[in-house]
Design brief:
This protein is mainly α. It is 68% helix and 0% strand. The radius of gyration is 15 Å and the shape is elongated.
Amino acid sequence: MTSLPSEVFASEDRSMGHFLYALMCAFPLFFLPVILSLLINLSQRQVAPLSLLGSHLRWQRRSIMGLALLLAMGYWVNPLWLSLSLCALGVIWFSYRIFKGWLSLTDGQAM
C-alpha cells in the first residue's frame, strides 16, 4: 500500500474505478465484461500512477492477468480434478481481489 495521506486522494474522481470494479463483478457472463474492463483500464494512460485511481487500475490489471493465468493453467493441466481446482482457485482469488479492491476504493485507500 502507498503511504500517501488520504487527503491527497479526497478530490479525485473515483467513478471510473467503481465502473471497472462493477464490470469485473460480472465475470460469470463469459468473461466479456472482464475483457471490456481490461480494455478500458489499459486506455486510461493519462491517470497518474501514484494517484488513488492509478493504484486501483494497476490492482485491477494484475487481478485480471492473474485470473487469466490461473484459468489458462487450469485449461492446459491434464488431470480433471487439478484443472477444476485451478479454475475454482482462480475464481475465488479473483472474487477476493474485486471485493478487497472495491472496498478500499470506497474507503479512499490506495492499493
